[in-house]
Amino acid sequence: MLKQQTAEQLKNARKAQGLTQKQVGELLGIDESTYNRYESGTANLSLDTIEKIVKALNKSVTILIQ
Prior knowledge:
The chain is an all-alpha fold. It has a single domain (2-65), classed as lambda repressor-like DNA-binding domains (434 Repressor (Amino-terminal Domain)), CATH 1.10.260. The protein is built from 4 helices and no strands. It has helices at 2-16, 21-28, 32-40, 47-56. Helix 2 (21-28) crosses helix 3. The two termini are 13 Å apart. This is XRE family transcriptional regulator. InterPro entries: Cro/C1-type_HTH (IPR001387), Lambda_DNA-bd_dom_sf (IPR010982). Residues 10-64 form the HTH cro/C1-type domain. Keywords: DNA-binding. GO terms for molecular function: DNA binding.
């Protein structure tokens, strides 16, 4: 359940910034398909990856636990 909520929060944060999955992937240096798996909840997120994502989206890590 938490994994799916986190994935949904990532998606919402990305859309709020007006970015595509491809654009976020480019900011992170990863493939769009990898980022898509994060947003769909099918890939595990490391703390390092979470930190990179929230920085790329100009958000706080707290967006993932709201």
